[in-house]
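FAQ
Q: What does a multi-component entry look like?
A: The components come first, one per line:
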Amino acid sequence: MFYRLSGVRHTSYIADSKMFKVPADRNLVVVFLLFGLVAPFLVPSLYLNSYMLPWLIWTAATLGLNLVTGWAGQLHLGYAAIMAVGAYASVHAAKFGLPWEVALLIGGLASSVIGSLFAFTALRVKGLYLALTTLAMQFVMDWVLTHSPAISGGSHASLQSPTFALLGQKITSDTGLYYVAFGWCVLVTIFMLNLKRTGLGRALVAVREKDFAAAILGVNSFYYKLVAFAASSFIAGITGALLVVTFYFLAAPEQFAVNVSIQVLAMVIIGGLGSIIGSYLGAALILLMPGVVNQLFTYIASVMGWELGLETLAHIPNAAYGALIIIVLMVEPMGLGKLYANIRDYLMVWPFDQLKK
Amino acid sequence: MAHTDSNPNDPILLMNSVEVLYDSVLLAIKGVSIEVPRGGMVALLGSNGAGKSTTLKAISGLLRAERGKVSRGEIKFDGQNINDILPQNRVGLGICHVIEGRRVFEHLTPDENLEAAAPPSMSRKKIASEKERMYEYFPRLAERKSSQSGYLSGGEQQMLAIGRALMTQPRLLMLDEPSLGLAPFLVAEIFGILQRINKEQGLSVLLVEQNAVAALEIVSHGYLIENGRVVMHETADALKENSDIQEFYLGGGEGKNFHDIKHYSRRKRWLS
Amino acid sequence: MDWVYLTELAVNGAMTGLLYSLVAIGLVLIYKSSSVPNLAQGALTMLGAYVVLAFSDILGWPLWVAIPLAAIIMFFVGMGIERVALRRLAGRPVVMILMMTMGIEIFLRSTTLAIWGGTSRSMNLGVSYDPLFVGDVLLNRVYIVGAGVAIALFVVFLLFFRTRIGIRLRAISDDYMASWSVGISVERGVGLSWGLASVVAVAAGVIWGEVQGVDQSLSILLLKGLTVAVLGGLDSIVGAIIAGIILGILESVGANFLDPLVGGGSRDLIVAMVLILTVMIRPHGLFGRHDIERI
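Then the predicted structure of the entire assembly, as tokens:
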């Protein structure tokens, strides 16, 4: 009753291949888009820039990883390293004097090139071994960054990024930065949404399912793996750059270490492999949950009169993060996107389905 | 769980109107009823995809591994309802299923394969004597008992799979297409050994085969399964004589010559 | 070319490598039977060490009581983790299973640290710290003990896999369906292998705790253990031992030459490079099965 598929009839091929075929879906998306646009005027600036902005940026990162892991089926445990390449390349380009638009592009392209190297390993192995290789490459990248003062300023130094500017306009206000992140996230989302309508998307799915069978059908699996890595690395590069520019304001190697790679992968899996709405939900859950649990613990401790040592408090967010992964995977292995789909399907026939035995 | 005193004339296996669902949506078997008499040899015939393997898996409990379940009907082994018993425990009751495609433990030697199947309660001496018995039934295996099973030939692997099943001390042996991919003389050899075991030990056998010719030589009666239903149940001789069976499953038939190549198969007489 | 020094590096490196093998053996045990790459092995190692300490430091019990007790507890912890968390993911894409083990790693590590705190403690095994001289070569006694433990474990498992239970575990790792069909309880076998791996984790935790103190860095051993396991073949215990020796020597001798060139920290780099090269050139490692490529 709330999510209706009845009455949705398409009379032309064009109508049938629209991105949102069901009016309910379309309306929901429009509502969220509008909310995103007017958020700076509704939401206090603290929440905007501490919660919504990182959420949008990490969603873009999650979407990018979803492209290569969820759609193309190539396990990638080195995503943060690629983001680092983009971040550092952009910042250096901007420091060199190039306008930010160009610097961002350079960051994206640099990431693309390095990310494509990973594709060559994907040609040889898959599954667990690909995951291990990308993990090892992440370590190598970590090492290169901390040992190259030229790039990163050394292991404990950080690289200050010049003020962000687009089209000549310097953007320093919270609202401005928020819109930049929002715009980028919308762009990536539109790209991902279109994926299922295009030949590229279908080819990626074919490669994911059985790459040798796809090759027999004429889908060059190596080419598409390369494309998947290159595209998702491009997204990673620009996202990494934007992360530094709008959120951290300086670039340091710890920001792109192994645990960050694992965090993005967790967002992908908890959200649901290949699910776009899942990327939003997964990123939100992982970003927010540890903080919420920490506050919950502190509150309970104060109410019950427990003494929580500083050590304990420091580790609770991480423990919550780990527990979150375990619990979500146990409850719904297909992720939050599937959970959302379950609820939507339930509402689709409500209240009639309940009459079935 | 106590079961009623089994009457020696009762069938050792009784399947009543069983339905099997895969993935909660695919109805693979639509009401199959089968009986295997004690000490008897029964065949399940039918072409690809008819539901024969599924029937065996329902009896042995291996459906769970493929997201299938018995949605209706009951399966009684020796008078006891086994619907809710785990597959590994059904083996303890005396049902052993030799699965399709041989599936020996490839990295273990044949000797270790036999040892792996021995029940945990079997003493060392008994295991050794049982192994000897297997090597006596299958002399070829004795020659290869220390090489990796993955390197055995198809026929040897099939013998190993049967020998391995026999180590579990079964009372009902179920075989899924044992002749698959084997040369005719090997098929004859293996089927001969099955007959011998059936006679010597009184082991009941349920044989699923596409190769109806070979199967009908050794069984006493057979069921024909098509599209998940039993369409015929006769003695082996009656099946061999039946002209429909001859045409559709035994390669015989009324007057096929070159002129008749482009002829349409007549409708099967039991589909009325 | 200072041969004595080089020999010293190689021998000590080999022994360090055998300590990595301790972690690798746990990984191999689980992978062999359930095809799960247990990324939580590092956290189990750390937890094992802390549990031993809980008995010996806090309750004051002697180590020869604490260690077996911890082994028993961790055995059930490992079985519990498999039963509760991993079993329902059987058959799912490997990326989900990887993520689950990573989640368990993060959770166990943080919870352990939250309970026991992050300050480093010492294991106090009672091994003297006097250096041992074989000829002119300087050896570390603790490393010798550790290497001995690794080799002892190796022999134990080699014998174990010839027993009836061991044969059944090997059968399970070959073919689940066939195992069920002959009455082998795959569920119990997999649970058992997780339990055994956790016991090995206790041994690894105790030795490493002695070598570098019991603190959170124990968990970082994972990458090195993983590299050893992959180099040796993810389902080969023999491989875990030999690969450990090889990696240890490579790391030790290689770092000696590379550090001056790159300014330090090249040990980890070498390990990462070995992992990449192994996967690219020979994914199934030195002794692993060929069919593993087709995950």
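Q: Is there any commentary attached?
A: Sometimes. For this entry: The first strand of chain A starts at residue 159 and ends at 160.
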